[in-house]
Design a protein that fits this description.
The complex is a heterodimer. Chain A is built from nine helices and five strands, in the order αβαβααβααβααβα. Chain A is α/β, with parallel strands linked by helices. The longest helix of chain B has 25 residues. The chains are: A alpha/beta, B alpha/beta.
């Protein structure tokens, strides 16, 4: 038999040496979970980035995708209101501001459930890194500010999968205002909490509302133990912090 | 399942508001719900009840399961394209119910209306549990709602229900036959198994939620007579006259 001395190992294995394959980990649901779904052997990682509009979520997710792909991981991005099932209807309902609180809350939960079953879980099973632009925490914080019952919300979202990492980009309301104006010279109706009647003045309402949401996030952090990231820093600095944390998650314990 | 954790700080608590009727909560209005399997004849009965009340000049409002405009388009799309899982099926119906509850039922009951519901939360309790959702999760979803002041359960034999449906239209519907559960490739057989399981769920709730059982194998008239008698006995109908000043 003839052996080529130059080829000690097949090429693929030499290249693969540099790419870390994440360890298959046992994922858990926050409660009952989904009927008929087994979460005990999912290959990928579920990474959530939370924060208000203008907190730099999309910038950070874009950077993470670029970095993860560069080091050889496949990624999938999901976000709120992107389900095939109800996203159109949800948009329509929000534009008209016609749904009451419980209804809107359940509508969002339907959208979330559809995405967890049809996008997040299949992607994790296939070993993808799933990056979520917001998760149940935003939905819960918004509803808590609007006086919804916490126990009811916890039961509702007990179908959610516990992520491998949750980063909450905490940005001061004053800074958020400036970033929103810098982006499109306007504040969003819902992100200003105008439906709550805190103030007729949108600017005042925005500041008040964002402080209330922040308080709820701090409260949720004590329950769900996510990482609060100081978002008042340059994007590059924040990115390096997220990168370090995700590296250790991928490497596993 | 052992791959679950319980939220820290959550005391399992079922049925918060769901233990009190509208009367007990001090609403001037009253809510009457009809429940039963598909083909039990409950829609015919509630229609006749509505006509009887309307013709007496009473303030009456009638509402059906799965009829809120905004949610309906998503539900029908989901059903048509078979996008629904037990969880999203459950949530989308809860959304529909919440919309009608918050925008119509509560204001009307505050205004002293008699509200008639063709199906109420018990439909969800039965269907979603048969589809595999945990009972306390489903009940938790609906625990913002009060109990009806009267709930009629129309109990018919499966063959009677099946024949009634097939007399009215040529085919059974996919979801009423529980075809999404893969119980049988034969749609009539699937209907029997699925509806049989629903019946079990309904009967297990019967005492807890004080259902008034109606023998739905009977002809229309004697059932309607019982309905009208029970409504007149339990609700002071004279208080529901339109009074315009």
């Amino acid at each position: 038999m003839k052996r080529s001395p130059a080829k000690k190992r097949p090429l693929t294995s030499r290249i693969r040496r540099h790419i870390v394959t994440p360890r298959r980990t046992r994922h858990r649901f926050y409660g009952h979970g989904l009927p008929g779904v087994d979460a005990s052997a999912l290959g990928g990682k579920l990474i959530v980035v939370e924060g208000a509009d203008g907190s730099g979520r999309s910038t950070q997710i874009a950077k993470l995708v670029e970095w993860l792909e560069a080091v050889g991981h496949a990624t999938v991005q999901v976000g709120l209101k992107r389900s095939n099932l109800v996203s159109e209807e949800l948009d329509q309902a929000k534009r008209g501001n016609i749904l009451s609180r419980t209804t809107l809350s359940l509508f969002y939960a339907t959208d979330f459930a559809d995405q967890i079953e049809n996008r997040i879980l299949p992607a994790l099973r296939a070993g993808f890194m799933v990056l979520c632009d917001r998760y149940i925490y935003t939905l819960m914080a918004r509803d808590l500010v609007r006086g919804m019952d916490e126990t009811w919300l916890k039961n509702l979202y007990s179908i959610a999968l516990e992520p491998d990492a949750v980063f909450y980009l905490n940005v001061s309301p004053e800074n958020l205002v400036q970033r929103n104006f810098a982006k499109d010279f306007a504040l969003d109706y819902w992100e200003s909490g105008m439906d709550l009647g805190l103030s007729r003045d949108m600017f005042d309402s925005f500041l008040k509302y964002q402080r209330m949401v922040m308080d709820q996030f701090r409260h949720l952090q004590t329950i769900y133990n996510f990482t609060i990231v100081n978002g008042d820093r340059p994007p590059e600095v924040i990115h390096r912090e997220l990168q370090r944390k995700i590296e250790s998650i991928v490497a596993g314990p | 399942m052992d791959n679950t954790i319980v939220f820290p700080g959550v005391v399992p608590r079922l049925l918060r508001v769901l233990t009190k009727t509208f009367a007990e909560m001090g609403y001037p209005g009253r809510l009457v719900a009809v429940e039963g399997l598909d083909g039990s004849g409950k829609s015919t009965q509630v229609y006749l009840l509505k006509r009887w009340l309307q013709l007496q000049g009473l303030k009456v409002f009638f509402t059906e399961w799965n009829s809120s405009e905004i949610v309906k388009s998503a539900t029908s799309k989901g059903k048509k394209m078979e996008l629904l899982t037990p969880t999203t099926f459950s949530l989308i119906h809860a959304t529909d119910f919440a919309d009608r509850y918050e925008r119509q039922l509560v204001p009307l009951l505050k205004a002293g209306y008699l509200v008639l519901c063709d199906r109420y939360v018990f439909t969800a309790f039965a269907r979603d549990v048969v589809r595999g959702c945990p009972m306390d999760w489903v009940r938790g979803l609906y625990d913002f709602a009060c109990l009806p002041d009267l709930t009629f359960f129309f109990k018919a034999d499966l063959e009677v229900s099946l024949n009634r449906i097939l007399q009215g239209r040529p085919q059974l519907k996919y979801f009423e036959a529980g075809m999404d559960l893969g119980l049988s490739a034969d749609i009539q057989e699937s209907f029997r198994i699925f509806q049989g399981r629903l019946l079990e769920q309904y009967l297990s709730m019967s005492t807890e939620f004080h259902f008034s059982l109606i023998d739905a194998n009977e002809t229309i008239e004697p059932q309607q007579e019982i309905l009208r008698t029970l409504v007149a006995k339990n609700i002071p109908l004279a208080d529901f006259q339109f009074v315009l000043t």
